Amino acid sequence: MKEDIKEVLFTEKELRARIKEIGKQISEDYRGKDLFLIGVLKGSVPFMADLMKEIDIPCTMDFMAVSSYGNSSKTSGVVRILKDLDFEIEDKHVLIVEDIVDSGVTLRYLVDYLKGRKPASIEIACLLNKPDRRTVEINTKYIGFEVPDYFLVGYGLDYAEKYRNLPYIGILKEEIYK
Ligand code: IMP
Ligand code: MG
């Protein structure tokens, strides 16, 4: 896998340090509130696993699966729900945990969809943000890092379902997906 990576952007150590800060912030912001974490499968899994351990207030968690990409490196703009929540979120303080915000289409759709279930509040924590690619407006309360417009893999991020298990985040060599 390593030979397919052009450059490492964030090492495992850097990721863990930043996630620790975000977890602390979330714990402060939601203390005394009914926090409900929703991870977006499958990309958010490593982020969720590390983030939840840095949150020191009681919380519940659940996962959703959506598809917007297929096996391409460009978004199709069409969002489908493949797995819905197992629990009700009414009156809960929902925090969606996502790997990366790119066009914003996926999260815009998810937020609007979940708002219909009357949560007390709904916010987003994303590990990476690619602001240059945004096509729809989306408010992200917690952001790990701003990243340039490259196709990134590792730490949950995939290309055609590969590279999710890399412990760091790197830029995928163009010849792999061109
Ligand atoms: P959006 O709907 O365009 O914001 O796309 C969000 C989703 O696209 C993310 O949850 C990722 O699964 C995927 N994605 C966007 N950019 C990248 C990338 O650089 N590498 C891997 N997946 C990406
Ligand atoms: Mg994703």
UniProtKB/TrEMBL annotation:
CDD domains under this entry?
Answer: PRTases_typeI
Q: Which protein is depicted? A: Hypoxanthine phosphoribosyltransferase
What is this protein for, i.e. what is its function?
Purine salvage pathway enzyme that catalyzes the transfer of the ribosyl-5-phosphate group from 5-phospho-alpha-D-ribose 1-diphosphate (PRPP) to the N9 position of the 6-oxopurines hypoxanthine and guanine to form the corresponding ribonucleotides IMP (inosine 5'-monophosphate) and GMP (guanosine 5'-monophosphate), with the release of PPi.
Residue ranges the record marks as coiled coil:
none
Signal sequence annotation: none
The protein's organism comes out as Clostridium liquoris
Which cofactors is this protein said to need? Mg(2+)
Keywords noted in UniProt: Cytoplasm, Glycosyltransferase, Magnesium, Metal-binding, Nucleotide-binding, Purine salvage, Transferase
